[in-house]
Amino acid sequence: MAGEAPALLSAAEAARRIREGLLSSAELVESCLEQISAFEEKVQAWVFLDAEHARKQARAADEKKASGEAIGPLHGIPVGVKDIIDTSDMPTENGTVLHKGRTPRRDAAVVSMLRAAGAVILGKTVTTECAYFHPGKTRNPHNPAHTPGGSSSGSAAAVAAAMVPLALGSQTNGSVIRPAAFCGVYGFKPTHGLIPRTGILRLSRTLDHVGAFARSLDDLALLAEQLVGWDEGDPDTRPRARVPFREVLAEEPPVPPMLAFIRTPHWERVDADAKDAFKELQEALGDRIEEVDLFPSSASAWDMHTIIMETEMAVNLEAEWTKGAKKLSATLRARIERGREARAADYLRALQTIPRIVDSFDDLFMQRYDAILTPAAPGTAPKGLESTGDPAFCSLWTLLGLPAVSLPLMRGENGLPIGVQLVGRRNFDARLLRTARWLAGKLA
Amino acid sequence: MAGEAPALLSAAEAARRIREGLLSSAELVESCLEQISAFEEKVQAWVFLDAEHARKQARAADEKKASGEAIGPLHGIPVGVKDIIDTSDMPTENGTVLHKGRTPRRDAAVVSMLRAAGAVILGKTVTTECAYFHPGKTRNPHNPAHTPGGSSSGSAAAVAAAMVPLALGSQTNGSVIRPAAFCGVYGFKPTHGLIPRTGILRLSRTLDHVGAFARSLDDLALLAEQLVGWDEGDPDTRPRARVPFREVLAEEPPVPPMLAFIRTPHWERVDADAKDAFKELQEALGDRIEEVDLFPSSASAWDMHTIIMETEMAVNLEAEWTKGAKKLSATLRARIERGREARAADYLRALQTIPRIVDSFDDLFMQRYDAILTPAAPGTAPKGLESTGDPAFCSLWTLLGLPAVSLPLMRGENGLPIGVQLVGRRNFDARLLRTARWLAGKLA
């Protein structure tokens, strides 16, 4: 262990050492706090962090371990939590001054699940305003002149800067996959309804997903495994068996996976260096990847995503609108205004079309492909902090609720990471991670 | 058995006699066909009836019985099916010339369930245009100058005229409870999602319910028991245990039920003679009934029902609109036009409010009341055939998906039936019928 700061360990490795008595949670948390001291001024990933409270949780974890009590899979592991996810012991301000000082009484379902697994909730990470586009203060750890992406800006950046091995985010359009790609970490948005959203700022029941950030697929699997479950507060969750993420990830695929390369109608927006990188990747994969055109029925998906998101946001943020529309950003206000005027028939038509497109993709997956390969974003993180970048390569998969993962497998000309997005079949989340590991191994 | 035409028997009694070999399905069906010959010219309940096809089904039922094979609870019993419910062996025209000659390839889920229980599908009963307001040809069997109510006009009238002991209908606003009340039969609209709607003209996923007509509570229970089930084509159904309607109905309530008399904001529309009848009923029930005011949150329920119905109809009838808007009635066109212009935020706000109002009623039921007693309609069937009457006393319960039953317990000054509506707690359907039997016994 000598030489390597515990903060640089993977969550799985740190959890193993804690379990075996080779590392204490206090040491791990202290190491994470040191990383934060060293890099927070540059990265600005955190909106709330009480070092003493974190140390207290770590000591409690170490005492529990010492007492011989049974411990969970994340025992003593610090996790960063996006500040739209309620915590009973820390403020949750949803990235808007309208919720300044808001202190929820209850943990979100996912926070309860993390605590039950033994995690230390290290602090709250920066979100854009109401998890929409208007940026927070966070910068890209690879180059602070560039955006970290959003809306889960702080979670992606904190994991990338090794301030914390794991973090939670959320995605309603591209808010997990895009910042993961821009910050060069692994990001995972499981199937819609797999992870309960109770106690999380609701933008859109149809589109909101909880997501996860880590620096390896193993860690994503470890984290995701703790979060699956039914919660009566989230009508889109279902009672279901635990998903054996780690077990499936540890398996070899029975046959070499076949990938469908889908450029989407937005390919022309992709930067030249990213296009080259994808071309090389295609060549490296040889006969294991084929180009597939989107079905005609998918062409309207982006418009469908827009009307659903605008409409549901307009209703779900109505209290904020009434209380202080002027304190919302112009971007968000404009979106809500459009949502308030949208026609119900258009909205409902969009909702009713989703299952039909999902069926088409089901056919694609059943007939030939293990996963879809597509960009996570149009390229590396754009320069400047006034925008969090373009979510267009995520909207379709979010709309359909398909599981997606971003892998930091390539780099642009500027040296910044480029994310490769893999998309899987609905409810085949563990298998998607297994395919992702195969892909990463293939390119290593 | 001498003297009584089999068509006049209850379904339960006829089924018993068939099971015991005292009556054949052929005799029963022939008796129903005789009733139809005698009264159809006056009542006009049927839009499709092939006597030979009905006789063939009856003969097949009798042969199966004779072979010693196991038979179902409705073996040999004729049932009328509203003409918005698909049948693979008869046209289903949905009450619109746009669907003239339409012959579905598959039975609706409920028709399959009836056939599995041994029923004879006697024919298709008249519906208003697309199960909305524009009347069909049916008249009230008690007085052909009066409306039978709608939209399940033919089913209610056919059961009232003893053309068939059982019939299926549907309700999106008041289309089962109102015609049952006007025709003086029992009508039952179970909890939303209890009976699958696959293969039935869809107006509104949120509001559409399958309903049942019979001349006794026993028969309603017998019919409803065959129809409960999960169907993957109806996303609002759930896998669940069979509901023991007949067993629960046969029990005595453990304590005398307590009823909540809710006048609703539309009480002023109730006819003077109906008001008197309800006053007498209240007096007869003494301390077993209390007046309860609607919660303030329910006041907007009628507007919510309107926007949900208009919006969902506009989308669900889009093919008809495109194909031949001019062939739709002016009433339906106007409604669709409004639905096409409705705002998504208003629609969604209405949808999101439903569970909160349901919760309030849950409290009411848990704290004190076994059922709500309220009018089924503003009075007896109105004179004239140009309207099917006022559904205002049904809209709230349809919106909330609560189970409702109409009981033909009173009469107006003109001698026509007045329906008493009992409304129960969601998913407590069998208990509602038990309370209804207690009420009927109390007033007998």
Describe the structure.
The structure is a homodimer of 444-residue chains. Chain A has 444 residues and is an alpha/beta fold. Chain A folds into two domains: 6-249, Amidase signature (AS) domain (Amidase signature (AS) enzymes, Alpha-Beta Complex), CATH 3.90.1300.10; 254-298 and 363-443, D-Maltodextrin-Binding Protein, domain 2 (3-Layer(aba) Sandwich), CATH 3.40.190. Chain A contains 15 helices and eleven strands. The first copy, chain A, has helices spanning 11-19, 25-43, 51-67, 109-116, 153-160, 177-183, 217-227, 245-250, 272-285, 301-316, 318-324, 330-341, 344-367, 392-400, 429-443, and strands spanning 46-48, 78-82, 120-125, 166-171, 186-189, 209-214, 259-261, 289-291, 371-375, 404-411, 417-423. Chain A has an eleven-stranded mixed β-sheet, sandwiched between helices. In chain A, helix 9 (272-285) links the parallel strand 7 and strand 8 (289-291). In chain A, helix 10 (301-316) crosses helix 14. Chain A starts with 10 loop residues before the first helix and ends with a helix. At the A-B interface, helix 10, helix 12 and helix 13 of A face helix 10, helix 12 and helix 13 of B.
